[in-house]
Amino acid sequence: MATAVGSVGADAGDSVGGGADSGTEYERAFDAAVAADERIEPRDWMPDAYRATLVRQIAQHAHSEIIGMQPEANWITRAPSLRRKAILMAKVQDEAGHGLYLYSAAETLGTGRDELLDKLHSGRQKYSSIFNYPTLTWADVGAIGWLVDGAAITNQVPLCRCSYGPYARAMVRICKEESFHQRQGYELLLALSRGTPEQHAMAQDAVDRWWWPSLMMFGPPDDESQHSAQSMAWKIKRHSNDELRQRFVDICVPQAESLGLTLPDPDLRWNEERGHHDFGPIDWTEFRNVLKGDGPCNEERLTRRRRAHEEGAWVRESAAAYAAKHTPGETGAIRA
Ligand SMILES: [Fe+2]
Ligand SMILES: [Fe+2]
Fold first, then answer.
1. Would you indicate the residue range of the signal peptide (predicted)?
2. What share of the chain is helix, strand, coil (3-state, %, to 5)?
3. DSSP 8-state assignment for residue 271
4. At residue 164, what are phi and psi to the nearest 5 degrees?
5. Which site from 117, 231, 278, 312 is most exposed, i.e. has the minimal number of CB atoms within 10 Å?
6. Of the ligands numbered here, which is closest to the C-alpha atom of 174?
C-alpha cells in the first residue's frame, strides 16, 4: 500500500505548486469526484489540507483502536468462564486488527506507521478520551461493548461512504466486527441484568458510569466543533456530531428497556414533536479535562503502550529482516 504513495501526483503536485491550487484542472477534477460521490484514491491529486485532515482523523482513530485494547484486556484473565474469555480475547484481537487496517490506510496518504506511533507515544496525537476511564468490574466489559462499541458503530457506519477510498473500505470490515462487539456487550449485560440482585446491580453501576462518557465520544457540540464543516464539504464526514449523538441516544433507549437497566439521565424523555429523545446537558468540563490528560487512566494507558512498543521491537526487527531476505532481487534468497 505504501508504495502507491511515492507516485501520488508527483507531477500533479509540481504543476500546482506550493499549495496555490485553487482553480486548477486537478482541483476541478477532485471537486467533481467528491460531488459525484466517487472515491478519491491514493494516486489521485488531492488538496494538501484534505490529506492532512485524513491523516489526523485516521491516526486518531487507529490510536483509539489499539489503546482501546487495554481497558478490556485487563479482564481477560478474570473472565468468569472459558466461553467469556474466548469471546473477549477475540474482541481485543479484533481491535488490534482495526488499528492495523487504519495505520495501513494512513500509509496510503504518505504517513508511515512509525511516525504516527511516535506521535501517539509522545502525546502529540490523541486517542479517544473514553479509554482513559478504568474498567472496575466485569460488567464494564459489557457496558463497553454495548455503549462504547455501539457509539463507535454509530460514528463509523457513515464513514463507510467516506470520500477517501482506502479509509471507506477499511471501515466496512471494521463496522462488521464492531457490530459483533456491540452484541457481545449487550448479551453480557443481559445475562447480568437477569442474574442475581448483585449481578443486576453491577450491570446498572457499569451503565451509570459509561453512559455519559459514551455520549462524549461523538465530540463537542456542533457549534464548537472546529473541523466539522470542512470535513462535511469533503464528504469525509456525513453527519454532524450532534446528529450522530441523537441517533445513538434514540437507539439506546429501547435497548436499555429490554435490558431492564436505567440510563442515568433524569431528563431523558421522548419528544413527540421532534420525533427524538430529549436528554440532559453533557458535562463538557469533564470531557476537556480527560482529553487534556487529567483522566483517571491517561498516564497508565500511554506508559503501557510505550512499554509494549519497546518490548515488541524484536518482532518488528525480525519481520523486517525476514521480509528483506525474501524480497526477490534483493538478496536472491528466495530463488537460491
Ligand atoms: Fe474497533
Ligand atoms: Fe470494537
1. none
2. 70, 0, 30
3. E
4. -90, 115
5. 312
6. 1
Q: Which residue has the cell 463509523?
A: 156
Spatial distance between the Cα atoms of 2 and 279, rounded to a whole number of angstroms: 45
CA of 144 to the centre of ligand 1 (A): 11
Find the helix packing angle between 165-193 and 197-216, rounded to 10°.
Answer: 150
- Say which ligand is closest to the CA of 66: 1
Spatial distance between the Cα atoms of 65 and 312, rounded to a whole number of angstroms: 18
pLDDT for the residue 300:
92
Neighbours of ion ligand 2 (CB under 5 A): 149, 178, 181
pLDDT at 13 over 90: no
pTM of the model: 0.87
Phi and psi angles of residue 98, each rounded to the nearest 5 degrees, phi first: -60, -40
pLDDT > 50? residue 134: yes
Cα 177 to averaged position of ligand 2 atoms, centre (Å):
7
Phi-psi label, residue 19: left if phi above 0, alpha if psi -120 to 50, beta otherwise: left
d(CA 75, CA 55): 32
C-alpha cell at 317: 526487527
Confidence of residue 22 (pLDDT cuts 50, 70, 90): low
- Residue 187 three-state SS: helix
Distance (Å, rounded) from C-alpha 177 to C-alpha 228?
Answer: 26
The CB-based long-range contact list for 269-274 (8 Å cut-off, 24+ gap) reads: none
Q: How far is the CA of 19 from the centre of ligand 2 (A)?
A: 38
Ligand nearest to the CA of 128: 1
111 CA → ligand 2 middle, Å: 24
pLDDT, one tens digit per residue, over 279-334 is: 999 998 888 887 777 778 888 999 999 999 999 999 999 999 999 998 876 554 45
* Residue 241 CA to ligand 1 centre (angstroms): 19
Q: What is the pLDDT of residue 113?
A: 94
Cell of 330: 534483493
Give mean pLDDT, residues 118-146. 94
